[in-house]
Amino acid sequence: MPYRSFRSVQADLANGTTTCRGLVDDYLTRIAENAHLNAFTEVYADEARQRADELDGRRAENPVRIGRLHGMVIGLKDVLSHAGHGLQAGSHILSGFTAQFTATAVERLLAEDAIIIGRQNCDEFAMGSSNESSAFGVVRNAADPERVPGGSSGGSAVAVQAGLCLASIGSDTGGSVRQPAAFCGVVGLKPTYGRISRWGLVAYASSFDCIGPIANTPADVALLLEVMAGADEFDSTVSTRPVAAYSQATLPSLASGGRPVRVAYLIDGVESEGVSPDIRRATQGAIDRLLAAGHVVEPVSLSLLKYLLPTYYILTTAEASSNLSRFDGVRYGHRAQPASGAQTDLVEMYKQSRTEGFGPEVRKRILLGTFALSASYYDAYYTKAQQVRRLVRDETERVFANYDFLLTPTTPGSAFRLGEKSDHTAETDPLQMYLADIFTVQANVTGYPAISIPNGTDSNGLPIGIQLMAPPFAEESLIAMAERMFKV
Amino acid sequence: MKVDTETLYKIAHLARLKVPPEEEGQLLNSLNSVLDWMEQLNEVDTTGIEPLTHMSALDEVDILRDDVVKNQLPRTQALVNAPVHDEQFIKVTKVL
């Protein structure tokens, strides 16, 4: 059985039950056995074994002077730069690309003795909610291989779910860490915007993108956040606020005189027809447990709820159209070959390279963003969405004036079938896929932190997630509360 | 309909993308349905609301480091990912 917490890994490493090399070999075996899930796009078998041997040697020399992540075997979503390794963001346009530097977040994991075992499949340029748009093919949910793992960090969530690594690092622009974590029955954290440096993260929408950990327990995502967070001179948007000891965070218990926690829950999460009955029931169950524990739990509604996704899509497609203009086939990435004998000018080369290199969803979002930013429509779409973004943030701030946390289901439904929402030939509404992110996007539109933890299963045995959101930089209490709910 | 065929080709040109002929119809439908859905925002009164343009805390916008050269990418490394290059330069099709 694979390990389900870093604490148990550390205990077994300390008492000699296992070694880093033993851990890596076990994970490599399970990765091979679960190749059909398609969670990894590349596995660094030799490198991980070598690293494990080095770490075992270091522990033998001096068991006290080891890094905080010594023995943690981690996978990286294919959007994080790791020098000397492939990096493709799940896209053909970066076929053969080798990263030239290491992301700050990854650098910090390595400095604390983590072992990177491979890079993990994701939706192309992190655009998707089902991991069906990757150039590397679909990823399958280990709970039911005919169903999606969620996205865009689908490979990362499945890898943790199936015990192919202890933890993964993903990215979350509209729910891409939390939604797949919910679909796969694991824990996913999106920190406050700017808590972790984005240096070395392939950009999708820069005012939304956050690096976030996926693991089995709140304690493990807390430790990873603690290691990755903090000031970085290569990202001018990263916060310089001190990094707390998130992995030690606790909430004072009511028994020891702590005040009751004040939780608001979004009324739509337990009443809306758009939320599956099983998820409504599971969410109500979590509310009942909090009430029984003596906390204040009260319903709230958001008047701007239905405007969250349109705001998100206008702004993210606009930012994406700008960010992805760098892929032009000149300095790196795919360059189209001119038809034999044909004279091709530079603009024609850009167009052909980009059209061949990007998949349909990415091209569609670039076109939407280009439209929203075009001179005649800029104010009607882009400026309007930025104004609504401020109103959403103001309304969210008002909720948190009275409450410590906002509770919602992570997703309105559980993992859907492969092709169910993505089959472009069928009569599927492209907006159905977008609605999977209805509860997660608020945290990205506002920049607030949020965590998804498992909350039982539905009648098909599929995992259900519950989400807690907190005010900016309140990760300590957010994680402590998640830890408390996780243990129940 | 916000996007007609002419507009589609215009924005595709601005985005440096081609519209494969077999995708034209579906793309028009798909873009227009998403844009219609986005227009729900017109129901929100935003009179006098300042657009939110920075997500960092107000005291932390654009923190810059000292302007010192560091973190360079050596030429040999920079050329590793170039699709067509010689010893020194990345090559493109004849421009002039």
Automatic annotation (TrEMBL), chain A:
<feature type="active site" description="Charge relay system">
    <location>
        <position position="152"/>
    </location>
</feature>
<keyword id="KW-0547">Nucleotide-binding</keyword>
<dbReference type="GO" id="GO:0050567">
    <property type="term" value="F:glutaminyl-tRNA synthase (glutamine-hydrolyzing) activity"/>
</dbReference>
<feature type="domain" description="Amidase">
    <location>
        <begin position="23"/>
        <end position="478"/>
    </location>
</feature>
<comment type="subunit">
    <text>Heterotrimer of A, B and C subunits.</text>
</comment>
<protein>
    <recommendedName>
        <fullName>Glutamyl-tRNA(Gln) amidotransferase subunit A</fullName>
        <ecNumber>6.3.5.7</ecNumber>
    </recommendedName>
</protein>
<keyword id="KW-0067">ATP-binding</keyword>
<dbReference type="InterPro" id="IPR023631">
    <property type="entry name" value="Amidase_dom"/>
</dbReference>
<dbReference type="Pfam" id="PF01425">
    <property type="entry name" value="Amidase"/>
</dbReference>
<keyword id="KW-0648">Protein biosynthesis</keyword>
<dbReference type="InterPro" id="IPR000120">
    <property type="entry name" value="Amidase"/>
</dbReference>
<dbReference type="InterPro" id="IPR036928">
    <property type="entry name" value="AS_sf"/>
</dbReference>
<dbReference type="InterPro" id="IPR004412">
    <property type="entry name" value="GatA"/>
</dbReference>
<dbReference type="GO" id="GO:0006412">
    <property type="term" value="P:translation"/>
</dbReference>
<dbReference type="GO" id="GO:0030956">
    <property type="term" value="C:glutamyl-tRNA(Gln) amidotransferase complex"/>
</dbReference>
<dbReference type="GO" id="GO:0005524">
    <property type="term" value="F:ATP binding"/>
</dbReference>
<feature type="active site" description="Charge relay system">
    <location>
        <position position="77"/>
    </location>
</feature>
<keyword id="KW-0436">Ligase</keyword>
<comment type="function">
    <text>Allows the formation of correctly charged Gln-tRNA(Gln) through the transamidation of misacylated Glu-tRNA(Gln) in organisms which lack glutaminyl-tRNA synthetase. The reaction takes place in the presence of glutamine and ATP through an activated gamma-phospho-Glu-tRNA(Gln).</text>
</comment>
<comment type="similarity">
    <text>Belongs to the amidase family. GatA subfamily.</text>
</comment>
<feature type="active site" description="Acyl-ester intermediate">
    <location>
        <position position="176"/>
    </location>
</feature>
From TrEMBL, chain B:
<keyword id="KW-0648">Protein biosynthesis</keyword>
<dbReference type="GO" id="GO:0050567">
    <property type="term" value="F:glutaminyl-tRNA synthase (glutamine-hydrolyzing) activity"/>
</dbReference>
<keyword id="KW-0067">ATP-binding</keyword>
<dbReference type="GO" id="GO:0006450">
    <property type="term" value="P:regulation of translational fidelity"/>
</dbReference>
<dbReference type="GO" id="GO:0070681">
    <property type="term" value="P:glutaminyl-tRNAGln biosynthesis via transamidation"/>
</dbReference>
<dbReference type="InterPro" id="IPR003837">
    <property type="entry name" value="GatC"/>
</dbReference>
<dbReference type="Pfam" id="PF02686">
    <property type="entry name" value="GatC"/>
</dbReference>
<dbReference type="GO" id="GO:0006412">
    <property type="term" value="P:translation"/>
</dbReference>
<keyword id="KW-0547">Nucleotide-binding</keyword>
<protein>
    <recommendedName>
        <fullName>Aspartyl/glutamyl-tRNA(Asn/Gln) amidotransferase subunit C</fullName>
        <ecNumber>6.3.5.-</ecNumber>
    </recommendedName>
</protein>
<dbReference type="InterPro" id="IPR036113">
    <property type="entry name" value="Asp/Glu-ADT_sf_sub_c"/>
</dbReference>
<comment type="similarity">
    <text>Belongs to the GatC family.</text>
</comment>
<comment type="function">
    <text>Allows the formation of correctly charged Asn-tRNA(Asn) or Gln-tRNA(Gln) through the transamidation of misacylated Asp-tRNA(Asn) or Glu-tRNA(Gln) in organisms which lack either or both of asparaginyl-tRNA or glutaminyl-tRNA synthetases. The reaction takes place in the presence of glutamine and ATP through an activated phospho-Asp-tRNA(Asn) or phospho-Glu-tRNA(Gln).</text>
</comment>
<dbReference type="GO" id="GO:0005524">
    <property type="term" value="F:ATP binding"/>
</dbReference>
<keyword id="KW-0436">Ligase</keyword>
<comment type="subunit">
    <text>Heterotrimer of A, B and C subunits.</text>
</comment>
